[in-house]
Amino acid sequence: MLTRKIGQKLTLGVVLTILLVIVVFALFSIESQKRSLIAEVERHAAALSEHIKLDTSYDMLHNDVESIHNTIRNFRGQSGIDRVRVFNKSGEIMYSSEESDIGKMVDTQAESCFRCHAAGQPLEQLDMVERTRIFRPTAESPRFLGIINAIYNEESCWSAACHAHPESQTVLGVLDVTIPLDDVDANIRNSQLTIILFAVSAIVLLGLAVRFMVRTLIDKPVQELLKGTRNVASGNLSYRVEIDRNDELGMLASSFNNMTDKLAQARMQLFQSDKLASLGRLAAGVAHEINNPLTAVLTYSSFLKKRSSGQPDIQDDLEVIVSETIRCREIVKSLLDFARQTVPKKRKADINGILKRAVNVVENQLAIGRVELITDLEEDLPAITVDANQIQQVFINLLVNASDAIGENSGTIRLSSRAINLGPAGVLQIKRAQCSKRHDLIDRKERIDGNPAIRMDYRKGSEEGRIYLDPVYGSDHHRLGDMPAFGDGVELRCPECSISLVSEDERCPDCGGPVYAFEVPMKGLVNGCLRDGCGWQHWEEVDSSWDDKFVEIRVEDDGCGISRNQLASLFEPFATTKGQKGTGLGLAVSWGIVDNHNGTITVESEVDKGTVFIVRLPVMS
Amino acid sequence: MRETCDILVVEDEPSVQRAVVMICTEEGLQVDAVDEAGKALELLKQKNYRLVLCDVMLPGMDGFGLLEELSHGGRTVPVVMMTGYSTMENAVKSLSLGALDYIPKPFTADELLTVIQRSIRSGVILGDAEAARLEGQRSFEFVACPSGYRSLGYVSWVLMEDEGTAKIGINDLFVKTVDGIDGIELSEQGDVLVQGVPCAVVTARDGSTHHVMCPMGGKIIEVNADVLSDPSLVEKDPYFRGWLYQVLPSNPDSNLQWLSS
Predict the structure, then answer these.
(1) What is the pLDDT of residue A580?
(2) Do A215 and A180 meet the contact criterion of CB atoms below 8 Å apart?
(3) Percentage of chain A lying above the pLDDT 70 cut
(4) Is A299 within 8 Å of B85 when comparing Cβ atoms?
(5) Cα A475 from Cα A427, distance rounded (Å)
(6) pLDDT tens track for A101-141
(7) What are the start-end ranges of the H helices in A62-144?
(8) Which residue(s) pair with A88 in the sheet?
(9) So what's the pLDDT on residue B116?
(10) pLDDT in tens, B53-111
(11) In this complex, do B15 and A288 lie within 8 Å of one another by their Cβ atoms?
(12) Would the CB atoms of B109 and A299 count as touching at under 8 Å?
């Protein structure tokens, strides 16, 4: 189809409108120019005619026919005058600049006389417009403008000595001046040409300009958006529409990207819940399969324990089998709880007790693998409210992982616990940030330590650029780019609306520098300082309500470490670094458990150096 | 005179079957064991059993089929179902089909014996009550649920309240089969209960512990503090002052279909 694109339609519409306007304007302007030129000539002719009349009036009064002839004849051949004629009342040409005309009769029905004589009785007064006429003697000849000027009978005329005219006569004769219009016509043609030339070039230029603007302002972004929608429709949710502009299309693009992000997140969640659902099915299947053998183990061992009441040494061993099998039962139950997403059954518990039980379970395995386990548990830790079985499960997982990381070589695992006071700083991630006009400051493309960063624009004089702030509260891995040292004169602005993000009435309490501020929806303002080496941040709402007592447990090994790539997906279900050896569920389950306890689990690792898993569990006040 | 025997075990997993038989025999109980529901029905025609221990998942006719056959045939033999945790819904279903109790797998010898003893006692009480009814006499063996209450087997009851909440408690028959309540362990306010999962652990005077299956899933909004301070309240007034929890049911309609009125 010819005009399927919106840009082409728009261009066509605008160009047609311009064409119409310019053509109408050109026609109008040609016409008005024509008119004003003719009017000018008319005025000139009238003045000339009046002048001749005055020039000859003296001779007329003295009836000096020869002198009148002379005067009139003098106009012959003068540029700008075709001929000058004087008719008497009966239409006979009395004087003329053309000798041959004299004595001829004028046809009163002819064009020059018609105005007055058409009505039968000659009119005596005519206004200017009616006295002039434009005519073309023959079809090929140039145009002429004629003007008639009646010579009225005045007292001086009928009282003159010659008595040529009686008093009763009103009009004595007519002075007819004819002026050629070839010059004027040439002028008109010239200006017509100029105007047409101007109009055509204006149309062409405007057309090109409109085409160019439509192309860059509309066509390209629309094409880009179209490409984006096609990409997204075909499932490529990581496609970003790149339109860096502040207009509606730019906004459309950013909300499109936003929508795609949300879609991607939703798909991720769906994917995640899909994974969890299959994990649930797997767990249910495993539980069912494992329950019969577990029943056999548990019934035999508990039965044997009952029967061997007289042999304490055997009884102790059997007790281990019974209690560990019961723990297996609890694990299967927790797996099913995980699949059901039920909340943990929390009780006050001593974390060191839980850790010791976890160590008991893995001790033998560690001894076989020649792994040395150093435990460094701080005494008198505050009791924490946890599901002891689930938390024990987490540490068994971590210890087994550590032992697997050490592998065939001997190595060391360090298990330590301590109480810490932990502000929200370094723990809490700012997930939403806005300027005071509620524009989103979170940039999902730019990530710092894997988390979407907070974007701001800076300006100092002519220097401009964008900076990215670390979204982890209290952490200062900001990406400041080329921003000059933050101080007086550096402005921070919202990239969307350019509203200032510098807090006017506040100063950094540490270094006295200027302070930026942004809003976390529903959670108040976050302030901070960007001076080198300062890194002060303040979040009133969170600082005042944060439970700051934590128990921190570290599981460190000097094993093979985890590569950067693997770190990114470490806590996802079915992510395993152990190849065929693991199920990939351990850390996902652990993460889920710790998260359910409002705790955090983080990992630091260096390939070939070792790995540290840090679990922090809140101590409820 | 029909031959009598204590227990019939219906379990297809040989190791579990052998273990159960061993444990029961050790306690001096007479045991028959089969691995199919069909064989069990044959034996039940020939002999009188004090208790049937039956797995839910069986080849051919499953545990439910057996329960239905028994209720069609008008047989009142007490049945205890054995089931894996993963088939908790099946456990609830078995109780609604007439099983007396159930025991989740895996279990220890002590847990199994506790359930067996309690169920045999229930069987006796129910048998006596049935006999009294047939003779046209009123039975004083145990107090049945008041009207309006719904119960999960003979274990626990639930009373739906007008506000959309529900009260949960222990049936009198369950209390009577436990040898005097010495202590009770309850979940905490805010915990979420699941139907068919133990919601309370009762300690009897003989030291045995008994799990009480929850009749209705939901979030606990109140725990009866009176029962915690005086567990014998459950014995004295199981249906009124002896309630355990007030819950906000999470799925009352689907839970109610398994409860008898």
Answers:
(1) 46
(2) no
(3) 88
(4) no
(5) 9
(6) 888 887 666 655 666 666 555 556 666 667 788 888 788 88
(7) 65-73, 111-117, 128-131
(8) A173
(9) 92
(10) 999 888 888 888 899 888 887 777 899 998 875 566 777 888 888 888 888 888 999 98
(11) no
(12) yes
Nearest to B107 among A293, A298, A305 (CB): A298
- Cα A56 from Cα A60, distance rounded (Å): 6
**B19 → closest Cβ in A296, A329, A342:** A296
pLDDT band at A1; cut points 50, 70, 90: very low
**B26 neighbourhood in chain A, CB within 8 Å:** 303, 306-307
Residue type, B140: F
- What integer is the mean pLDDT of A297-313? 89
Q: How much of chain B is in helix, strand and coil states, percent to nearest 5?
A: 35, 30, 35
**A322 vs B: CB within 8 A:** yes
Residue of B nearest to A346 (CA): B191
Does residue A343 have a pLDDT over 70? Answer: no
The tokens describing A558, both together, are 């000097």
Per cent of chain B over pLDDT 70 is 97
Q: Which of residues 253-292 of A touch B (CB under 8 A)?
A: 284, 287-288, 291-292
Mean pLDDT of chain A: 81
Phi/psi at B100 (5° precision): -80, -35
Model pTM score: 0.46
Look at B16 and A296 and tell me if their CB atoms are within 8 Å: yes
Print burial letters for A19-54: b (CB count within 10 Å at least 16), e (below 16).
Answer: beebeeebeebbeebbeebbeebbebbbebbeebbe
Residue B114 at interface with chain A, using a CB cutoff of 8 Å: no
Check: complex ipTM more than 0.85? no
Query: Is the minimum CB–CB distance between A297 and chain B shorter than 8 Å?
Result: yes
> What are the pLDDT digits (tens) for A502-520?
888 788 888 888 888 898 8
Helix (H) or strand (E) holding A60: helix A6-61
Higher pLDDT, A356 or A157: A356
pLDDT of A489:
77
CA-based nearest residue to A343, from B107, B24, B132, B220: B220
Of residues A233 and A126, the one with the higher pLDDT is: A233
Which residue in B13, B105, B186, B188 has the most chain A C-beta atoms within 10 A of its own C-beta, making it the best mutation to test that interface?
B105
> What's the full length of chain A, in residues?
621
The better pLDDT of the pair A331, A128 is held by A331
A333: Cα separation from own chain's centroid: 52
- The tokens describing A184, both together, are 């004027």
Distance from CA of B105 to the nearest CA of A (A): 6
Q: Does an H or E element contain B57, and which?
A: none
Q: What is the largest CA-CA distance in chain A?
A: 179
DSSP structure class, residue A238? T
Best-predicted range by mean pLDDT among A12-16, A131-135, A385-389, A616-620? A12-16
* CB-nearest partner of A345 from B107, B112, B191: B191
Task: Give chain B positions within 8 Å (CB) of A306.
Answer: 26, 109-110
Average pLDDT for A61-66: 82
| Residue of B16, B24, B88, B199 best to disrupt the A interface, most CBs of A under 10 A | B16
Hey, is A610 helix, strand or coil? strand
Rg (CA), chain A: 52
Q: Which tokens belong to A214?
A: 């439509």
Distance from CA of A392 to the nearest CA of B (A): 20
Q: Is B107 part of the contact surface with chain A (CB cutoff 8 Å)?
A: yes
CA-nearest of A331, A519, A364 to A435 is A519
* B interface test, pick of A294, A301, A302 with most B CB neighbours within 10 Å: A302
Q: Which is nearest to B159 in space by CA: B171, B142, B177?
A: B171
pLDDT (average), residues A402-418:
86
Spatial strand order of the sheet with B3-10 comes to: B31-34, B3-10, B47-55, B79-84, B101-105
Q: H-helix or E-strand containing A97? A: none
